């Protein structure tokens, strides 16, 4: 079932609930937006799965009756966006209730360092859960001759849109290999747009940070010979040493058509974050719904990265305070000592 169809079903259930419950039922509805990323990436489909799992509009059947196991009266929606930085800015500005962010970007935002230096710390940023590792993809056309990030010099390279975590990490990778944006022909496009240009011979390489397989890359590989460029060696080790949120990772061979060999790379954690202003009881209920058996089944069957979203790793790599509602759930589940920062 497509996300569009799921969204229509959720909307229909919401309308049915309003008609069945009357005005009082309508007043009990709660809306909760999840800012994700571009539609061609991993954030958006994962956001759609989670939104459907935690939603339980008025009038829907109870979990024990075979219906939704979500939060009663909640209608959650996944919203496409420019990515991590934009999502945090939207949460801070109150235009969305929650969003996905790379672990490094969330830390920099909360502490007012890194890409948020001089912009003011987003002190109310809070974590709901760590979701899955995001692999740094550097995709090049086979004819470009690019075999290492060092080979990007003089090439036309897309770094993703302003406001994305990918752009932040792409700049870090370039710097590790002694390059800046002045050494390449930079473009600032989402991976699907960069892939379209690569098909036409107008793009040598592009960065993407997200779970594999990424839809835009998988589609590109069906019509274009591509290379998953390794990000490894002393330069990658330097990045890990300098930035604690990066870890070594591998994109397995066969992930993308025509790419038989595994590619060493780096990864960061994809995390679900919100504001301290969100009600404790609501975030507690949402966190509880995220980790129930119904959601587990949806994640396992809905996306290749879904199986990596587990309660056991929900607190891994979180460098910002937990939301008190989420903290309460993890305490009850006996997981709080698994590396989480305490709520403030």
From TrEMBL:
InterPro entries: TRAP_TAXI (IPR011852). It comes from the Bacteria. CDD domains: PBP2_TAXI_TRAP. Pfam families: NMT1_3. Transmembrane segments: none annotated. Residues 1-26 form the signal peptide. The keyword Signal applies. This is TAXI family TRAP transporter solute-binding subunit.
């Amino acid at each position: 079932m497509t996300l569009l169809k799921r969204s229509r079903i959720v909307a229909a259930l919401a309308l049915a609930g309003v008609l069945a419950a009357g005005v009082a039922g309508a007043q009990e509805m709660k809306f909760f937006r999840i800012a994700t990323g571009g539609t061609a990436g991993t954030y958006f489909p994962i956001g759609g799965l989670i939104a459907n799992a935690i939603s339980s509009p008025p009038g829907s059947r109870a979990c024990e009756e075979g219906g939704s196991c979500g939060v009663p009266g909640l209608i959650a929606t996944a919203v496409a966006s420019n990515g991590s930085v934009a999502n945090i800015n939207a949460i801070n500005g109150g235009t969305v209730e929650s969003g996905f962010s790379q672990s490094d970007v969330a830390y920099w935002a909360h502490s007012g360092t890194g890409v948020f230096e001089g912009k003011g710390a987003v002190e109310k940023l809070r974590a709901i859960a760590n979701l899955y590792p995001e692999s740094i993809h550097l995709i090049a056309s086979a004819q470009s001759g690019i075999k290492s990030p060092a080979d990007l010099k003089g090439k036309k390279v897309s770094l993703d849109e302003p406001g994305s975590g990918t752009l932040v990490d792409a700049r870090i990778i370039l710097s590790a290999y002694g390059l800046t944006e002045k050494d390449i022909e930079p473009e600032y496009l989402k991976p699907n747009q960069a892939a379209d240009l690569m098909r036409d011979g107008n793009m040598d390489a592009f960065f993407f940070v997200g779970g594999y397989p990424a839809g835009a890359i998988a589609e590109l590989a069906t019509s274009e010979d591509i290379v998953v460029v390794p990000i490894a060696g002393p330069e990658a080790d330097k990045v890990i040493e300098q930035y604690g949120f990066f870890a070594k990772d591998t994109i397995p061979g066969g992930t993308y058509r025509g790419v038989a060999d595994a590619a060493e790379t780096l990864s960061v954690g994809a995390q679900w974050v919100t504001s301290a202003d969100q009600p404790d009881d609501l975030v507690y209920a949402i966190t509880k719904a995220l980790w129930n058996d119904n959601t587990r089944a949806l994640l396992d069957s809905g996306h290749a990265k879904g199986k990596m979203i587990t309660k056991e790793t929900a607190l891994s790599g979180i460098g910002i305070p937990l939301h008190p509602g989420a903290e309460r759930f993890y305490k009850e589940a006996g997981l709080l000592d698994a590396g989480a920062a305490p709520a403030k």
